[in-house]
Amino acid sequence: MLLNQGSNVTIVNCTMQRNSGDGLGMQMASTLVMENSTLQDNQGNGMSVGVGSNATMATNPNERIRVLRNGGDGIDVDGSFFQVNFGTLDVENNAGAAILQTGGRLIIFGGQGVGGGNLFQGNGEGIDIFQAGSAQFVGKNTIRSNGDFGLQVLGSSVMFTGGGTLPDGTLNATVIEGHATVGVNVVRLGELTMNGPHQIQNNGTATADPTMRGGIRMNRGSLTLVRGVQISNNVGPGIRADQNTGTSIRNITVSNNTEEGVRVGRQSVSGFFPPLAITGNGVASISCDSTSLIFGDLTGISHIECNRIERAPERPRSERVLD
Questions:
Q1: How far apart (Å, rounded) are the C-alpha atoms in residues 32 and 308?
Q2: pLDDT of residue 321
Q3: Which of 22, 46, 131, 262 stands the most exposed, by the fewest C-beta atoms within 10 Å?
Q4: Nearest CA to 152 among 63, 231, 216?
């Protein structure tokens, strides 16, 4: 199916499968609402949304969109708007990325529909946000076992928000787990904010590139983690901040990673603000090289291997001090 030249289409209860190209293509400012439909076993992408088009998935909580076993990416968004509304999106076992976004705007709401959240699993790559894209993930999203990388951000801005629990008792938050090299890879002026009890866990392997593996890898980017983010049980550092990266963390847990909890290197700067739990990691809790700086309140954090620390200023003494 091809939507072209300003088409305005609603698709309900349809299956697009076993085509020689994409299951569905959109271009030239077309608009789509899709409900309770499946795109599977196509030789190209499951869905391509391009040239200023607008696609909205699952407008009611009882609806599910499935994108399965396609030969390219599950969903390809190029300079367009793509939104998952109140229902559920499953993107599984596609040969390429679960979602490849180049420019444009992506909004994914999770945890409100059937199945308790969106699932991106078993794809050749996880979710790629590239070249001045903007993306927001809200609520419960599971990004699991997608080749080497769970989430990649290149020159783009991505935000995850979440909090509370769902009726089944699970956290209303994103989980990124089970990737061979790194859970999150942010490079080339990429910016990532995670707000809420999101979990980056069980990523990396002993055979992966030792300069990349771990929970979160930052290279020339910006990272903000607040309100209960958990980074645990990854092979490699929990957070690797490298090459002019700025990092700010508050009220998070970094635990039981095989290397450092947080590694800061190559003219990077990282700020730490309590409460913090950085424990049980295989090397130091925090390390930095001679070119980098850490600052903030490091109270309660042991095993810090860093020569350049700007500590929080002491409270002024009440007594008069004479020189």
A1: 54
A2: 47
A3: 131
A4: 216
